[in-house]
Amino acid sequence: MATTNNQGRTLDRALDVLECVTSTHEPVTLTEISRATGLHLATTQRLIGQLVKRDYLKSTPRGYTLGPQVLPMSHSFVLQDRLALVAPSVLSALTDHTSLTSSVFVRVADRRVLVSRFEAPNPLSYQFPVGQVLGLFVGGGKVLLAHAEEEDRERLLADYEPVALSSGRLQNLEELRNDLEQIRETGYFLAEAERSKDSLSTTAPIWSPDDSLLGTINLVANTGDTTRKELERHTSTLLQASRRITAQM
Fold first, then answer.
1. N- to C-terminal Cα distance for the chain?
2. Do 172 and 194 share a structural domain?
3. pTM for the predicted model, two decimal places
């Protein structure tokens, strides 16, 4: 039993190291990884050595980055995950119908990750690659937060600090809770200048056939091209697209 527990701790620690490196856009040093994970320097060095040996991490003059072994893992996810397989055709039809950029996100730990995206003919002022990580407190992330289990949601809100939105407004906890309640009542969320001052979006949940939350689907527009009222008219189409995904799961 002790050996099993030790193996479990070793696996957890190795995953902590991988997640630490994944969370940055720059190489990370041994000391930075040790500090971020709370692991002893010698333990961190040993784990990194094993991960480098297996090509999950790569050593560079500036620190450690993810290694090439993660690429076939990402490719396998796209081929194996049912939502990732179903989403592209639904998003393509949704964008064709609305002429707006459409996306599907899933929750990973306390964040959301882009699984699939279809760009509109008139592209947004910013581009997101598949795998882009965003938070849960702004924009479409609120839909995932609104439909989280109550205990989980309250855990996240307990550490919440006011967030400066792109509009310049400071979003406090009461305002966030009001948005979450509205999402549960209406079934979608329309955000304007929250994450990006030049964009507005409408987001709906994606449910599995047994009513568990799979992710979110959204439409995003440039504020110079689409008004809030025009975007809101697409909400019924967005909800239909969400149901089409559910039907194929």
1. 39
2. yes
3. 0.89
